Amino acid sequence: MKSYIYNIEQDELSAWVEAHDYPAFRTKQLNKWLNQGIDDVNQLTNLPKVMRQQLAEDFTFDGLKITSRLVSQIDDTVKYTMLLADGNIVESVFMRYRQGTSVCISSQAGCRMGCRFCASTGLGFGRHLTAGEMFAQVALIGRDMGERIDHVTIMGIGEPLEDVPTLLAFLYRVNDPDGLNIGMRRLTVSTCGIIPAIRELATANLQITLAVSLHAPNDKIRLQLMPIAKKYKYNDLLAVCREYQNRTGRRMTYEYALFEGINDADIHAAELANRLSGHLCHVNLIRANPIANEPFQRSPMDRVNSFQKILEQNNIACTVRRELGSDIMAACGQLRRWEYDGKGSY
């Protein structure tokens, strides 16, 4: 079976070029095309025809295909459904902010973390994505939008810290000046809180932003929302986050989705503030997005505002995340591994 061209490492590309007696500069040309999100060998217009034919014989160029593209009617968000070579499906999102463009990518086809408020877990688990498939999501979206991507968040379908080596390979590649040259501080990794993996990631000592999903001020409430809370206790999670912050010098980000009557009371805000007191961190408050067939309701804005006020009064930096793409099921927690039928439904 032929390998997907985006899965080929730089030294392997160089070896292939050398083995076929092409000059070394052809490697740079090929790599440049990959950075530009090509998905057809015939798009490599500055390479000799015979070279393109040999590339097509040895590699596949359509291991990731954009199969649908939904544009939000309320903002500039675009949601992409992408088909992998083995039939698995993932979703990715393009967003526009005042500070630039951002792409939210998937790290797995499906998710096995089981968070009750997240649509990604509803259709089971397919597999881990490769670093090349993660990279291709960014590159193909950049090509489709005709824009440079400034920021990347690994916050789509899947738990990226289930496969730290692959995650690191992707981060290094997207940061590489010969790759997409996106600064480490513009890369965000989201996790539900796998303690050993956070320690493993810390050893790389990267300047990325690590966003940990808390969604509760204590174990009891967190367990209602996130099964992983049964394995990794709240205090232990905060302790390893402090270790990570001390190792990297980077401010931690905590994600907190607000659900009416579950975790949005003033007492919950006060408890969270007490837990995070003295900790270099920032809290992203998320007015939880509705998910079909789940009982959780999003908190009303007055509750969100009150929660934010209490955190700020206790010197906890926080913001309410801007909601993007909710009309196309592209907002936080709404991505799933299914195909859009092009007629307004899934």
Task: Describe the structure using short key phrases.
346 residues; alpha/beta; DNA polymerase, domain 1; TIM Barrel; ten-stranded mixed beta sheet; two-stranded parallel ribbon; 10 helices; 14 strands; 21% strand; elongated
Task: Explain what this protein looks like in three dimensions.
By secondary structure, the protein is of the alpha/beta class. It has 10 helices and 14 strands. α1 (10-19) packs across α2 (25-35) and α9 (266-276) packs parallel to α10 (301-313). The chain starts with a strand and ends in a 26-residue tail after the last strand. Residues 328-346 have low confidence and may be disordered.
- Total domain count: 2
Mass-distribution shape? elongated
The CATH architecture designation of the largest domain is: Alpha-Beta Barrel
Number of strands: 14
**Top-tier CATH class of the largest domain:** Alpha Beta
Secondary structure layout:
Elements: E1 3-4, H1 10-19, H2 25-35, H3 49-58, E2 59-60, E3 64-71, E4 78-84, E5 89-97, E6 100-105, E7 108-110, E8 125-128, H4 131-145, E9 151-154, H5 164-175, E10 187-191, H6 195-202, E11 209-213, H7 219-225, H8 234-248, E12 252-258, H9 266-276, E13 281-287, H10 301-313, E14 317-320
Parallel strand pairs: 1-2, 6-9, 9-10, 10-11, 11-12, 12-13, 13-14
Antiparallel strand pairs: 3-4, 4-5, 5-6, 7-8
Helix pairs in contact: 1-2, 4-5, 6-8, 9-10
